[in-house]
Amino acid sequence: MDCDAARAACDEAVEALVRRWFDALSGPAGEPSALGALLAAGPLEISLDGNRLADRAALIAWASALRDRYARIEFELDEIEVEPQRDRSRRVRVEFDRRALDREGYTHLVRREQTWRVELEPGGTPVVRGIDERQLLPFPGTGPGVLGF
Amino acid sequence: MSSRACALLAVSLLIASAAAGREPKSLPIYDGVGAEFSAPSSLGREVRLSEFRDKVVLLYFGYTSCHAVCPATLAHLRSLVGSLAADSERVQVLFVTVDPENDSADHLREYLARFDARFVGVTGSREQIERIAGSFIVEHARSHDVEVSNAYNARKAAADRSYIYTHSQQIYLLDKLGRTRALYFTGSPLDEMQEDVTALLSE
């Protein structure tokens, strides 16, 4: 796929990549090893849950531990914004809620914003090079909470 | 009323109570919101969040010369604590100032006593406050572009002129392990807050 000529199609492929990523992290049905096929070759620049994950093995180990920690884990994606960069890569901003049920029956909520660096392989296939994230309060659309004075 | 009729009435009330959802609800845990801290307080000593581990904590960020939302929120919290009767002794309100340059421990004690002398104020260095606010994902910013005139402005000796802070206004409900379990605003219904506090006290 020529991503210069078919930008919309490429951006849709990037969005699909993001959705496949979170499907793989979901549990119990998700399969963390599926993340491997979504990664760029070479060193990674991924920071998740305070862990720096520099290669495929580290990422899959983290994802497996996350899935195993909970009886159920699911992600609700609120926003996926894909922004082309000058070097043909894509910058992706995704905001999501993570809901997880632990073994004691407690629900854990996390809301985060992630910024992804997605590279396009010669055939146009998107792959993940890097991810950074920051914690948000679990109020959709309000960021750090309503301001007052 | 016969004993059979009494039994039927009791069963009906139980069914109605269950249908109304009055069972204690399990509140979610907001992972990554809040962390242990230690800072000077209106008690005249350093307090640690973990020293309230046997209590349910309601935590709020504000400042004493705040005009609008802070006094309203503290009054709201006073009403909530007052509605808890004996359980109020197992609840702790913490007020963390975002204006530590002017809100000393003594001033916080005097200010909070107007609402409830059991409320504890937290102050410290700017760095301490930034660290606490950051862990609770609180935003705050000082503005010099607003005319402010109330009695407390006289206390702003460190300020070069009047200012206000804009700041996040959510109230955090922490369980006995210090985990954030609910978030509210000034107008959150007291009965819902009371129900949540009671549920955490029973855990």
The fraction of residues assigned to DSSP E strands of chain B is 15-25%
Strand order of the largest sheet of chain B: 6-5-4-9-10
Q: Average pLDDT value of chain B?
A: 84
Number of strands of chain A: 7
Kindly report how far apart the N and C termini of chain A lie: 52 Å
Radius of gyration of chain B: 20 Å
Largest interface, with counts of residues having CB < 8 Å to the other chain, equals: A-B, 19 and 25 residues
Produce the secondary structure layout.
The complex is a heterodimer of chains A (149) and B (203).
Chain A: H1 7-25, E1 45-48, E2 51-53, H2 56-69, E3 72-84, E4 90-101, E5 107-120, E6 126-136, E7 147-148
Parallel strand pairs in A: 1-6
Antiparallel strand pairs in A: 1-2, 3-4, 4-5, 5-6
Chain B: H1 3-19, E1 29-30, E2 38-40, E3 46-48, E4 56-62, H2 69-83, E5 91-97, H3 105-113, E6 120-122, H4 126-135, E7 140-143, E8 164-168, E9 171-174, E10 180-184, H5 190-201
Parallel strand pairs in B: 4-5, 5-6
Antiparallel strand pairs in B: 2-3, 4-9, 7-8, 9-10
Helix pairs in contact in B: 2-5
